[in-house]
Amino acid sequence: MAHIMEMLGKTRVVVEDGKVIEIGEPMIEWCPIFDKVRGIRQFTPEEVKKNVELRMKDFGLFTKERKLDQPVFVGFGVTEVMMTGLERDMLDTTVTVCDGAGTVITSNPSLVQGMGGRISGLVETEPIDEVINRIESLGGIVLDPSTAKIDPVEGVKKAALLGYKRIAVSVIDLDTAIKLHEVESENEIDLTVIGAHLTGIDMEDARELVKHLDIVTACASRSIRDIVKPLVQVGTSIPLFAITKKGKELLLERAKDIDSPILLNTMPLPFFPEQKKPRTPV
Fold it and tell me: What residue ranges do the domains of the chain occupy?
């Protein structure tokens, strides 16, 4: 098995035994966030390799030294919103993923941030016992410790069986979002579904997907940016959109934790300053 993640322009990265063995081609050329935070002016396989190796060295990504105490990386990110929802008792638990563990159920806000704050689109991972044990010691429930499988639908089912009602879960595709709402109806739970990692999604799937979401991040998706009709938008570089009232309440609650000044204004949405759009959006 290996660890597979899509990052920095949805570039496919494969890691085995602590070494990067495969780097794909980025789908976009530039992202305002990584330019600002890391000074990366153009995504290339070489830059992606350097970045994943930095993450492996910095906080143990894909290794048994994985650090699960991570500061806030962006003010408005999926894990940051989930963390705030748990802290404010707007959510009972979350279903997310972590390298070395796969799908994880947890009600620990700091663990949600620690697992997800610095990873991108995790496609596949293999179990790392030390990481799994640490997650469990911090109040996380690993869906399948023997395989570290990534399965948000099964994660939500298990969370429901454990008695959780208000559950937040992230999704990256339409099929999963549809199945999640079926699980919601069958188990009489209240799901908050957040769409992420959507660079490259086609227009047809994007139109259908937003019908099943409460919050969505635009990533570098031209389709999402063209069709979304948000109640609230936070951020302009890689914005997060609230599509439902439930999503709106979560984003506004998250805004209370932002230290920097915030402008609240009514205006037509979405709003995208040209200079902050990801280059070659798809």
Answer: 76-276
